[in-house]
Fold this sequence. Notes:
Number of strands: 29
Mean pLDDT: 85
Helix content: 10-25%
CATH superfamily of the largest domain: DD-peptidase/beta-lactamase superfamily
CATH architecture of the largest domain: 3-Layer(aba) Sandwich
CATH topology of the largest domain: Beta-lactamase
Strand content: 25-35%
Shape: globular
Number of domains: 3
Largest sheet: 7 strands, mixed
Radius of gyration: 25 Å
Structural class: alpha+beta
Distance between the termini: 44 Å
Number of helices: 14
Amino acid sequence: xxxxxxxxxxxxxxxxxxxxxxEPQLWVWQLEGDRVxxxxxxxxxxxxxxxxxxxxxxxxxxxxxxAQSPPASFCSGGASCWLLRGHGDVDVSRATAHSCNAYxxxxxxxxxxxxxxxxxxxxxxxxxxxxxxxAAIGLAHDGEPAAVIRPADLLRSYDRLIQEPWRxxxxxxxxxLAGLRLATVEGTASGLSGLGVYAKxxxxxxxxxxxxxxxxxxxxxxGAGSARLGLLARGxxxxxxxxxxxxxxxxxxxxxxxxxxxxxxxxxxxxxxxxVARNVSGVPLSARGGFVGPGGELPLLPGExxxxxxxxxxxxxRRLSRRVKAAVEVAGQEDGRxxxxxxxxxxxxxxxxAAAELSSHERPRLRTxxxxxxxxxxxxxxxxxxxxxxxxxxxxxxxRGPRVAWSAPGRARVVHLRDGRGDAPLLDADLRxxxxxxxxxxxxxxxxxxxGGRPLSARFLWGAGDAGTTLCPRHDVSSVRxxxxxxxxxxxxxxxxxxxxxxxxVSDDGVWKLRARTAAGDKDWLxxxxxxxxxxxxxxxxxxxxxxxxxxxxxxxxVRGRGLGHRVGLCLAD
Length: 574
């Protein structure tokens, strides 16, 4: 039973970055697929975002000057640019990387104001009147019309900027993308080098209204549907990039993840509206404002904090429950959904991944997978609000179970291991020590359901990382049965866009991509993003692994491949 619940204490606002009082406040928004996640306290109102407007000014210039290229220019600095000494010779890519005011002001001056306003509005900005050239590039003066945008809309607009070709000026977009890549190396976003593919910064008037002060923005994108936006309440865009990099700083090379805590985003693909927690620890556990006795339960609310213990978390509308040994915190989303973060010992996380991924709990396989999980964690956090999520975006994790299969949408049924053992494997002291020792040796940091007889490298699949593959001792090409799928034209267009003329697998500079040819031009999709898009239409089994070939027939696409999962790293198939 619930023993006591007192009134909530009046607490100071906790910074989204976890910074202590007095340190710069950093809010972070994360785009994953169609969803934008943010702390409940993060600003939601439209904001000025400074130089983050500049790529859309280029888009407006391209619409006004079809089939033309903007001339190279010389930035002499002084009053014309934020960099007093100037940027010297600049073109589209270099001006983008260094956010040159002089260059983009000249583009705005050469573009009709209505086209600039239209490009910004199409990107999600609210424009309250005709914009001056300064206002168009994010330098609006007090009292004059300006452009503002909600942070979530800004993330989506930049994702479209990266993903979708322009109908006019596509060559200029490619030059701009080169500048967004260069920005992470030598430009204003150099603090984000190594964390993503594209980045841009912006500096605007202070979000809290302090006169003569600024707030900084930094955005980073991987080009495959995942992006992160940081807002530093007091600072510049360059400082926001550094703060965003620090918030996602990987653990130092060679350090062991086993001494840290792991923060896991639970139910990350569901984001439920209602979750009930039950104390199954056998002892009272504290919650925010009170205690929960053994067997007691409570509905979780935004701001809830559950002390570390064994909790059963239940989503009644999905007939789904999960047990975790962890401390749990709950944050609310703008649409009323809940985001749960479970903080736990790394070995508890290892056991939860093994419970999800392995069909039996044989000690050699537990040791090998456990070591791979610790190497994976040592690579650093993969989300703004937790180190990892519980879906295959990071690693399939079910805590202490139960294992479930979805028998129908919204209905899960419990399944058991074939050897009759419980869901959570037993990691005794000897096995934990063996896992830690093996994790410090060279070995895979990824794992897959089935290698298909031909393992893939991280470089081939994701465009970054190690180009080597992990040998599978159980499968070779001759021992693997392939898979085939049929996608109707209508379903393929629902996933990849209208007027789809062709789909084919290509290797672009040694990276697997699914190329969609449409009336608007070619668009390439990495495996994870293609998988996610097809899942919305045909379910997660529509693309079981990176396909070997896609061929168009009269009314469908025929797809063939091998294996299951991304086929990178340790093969977990029997």
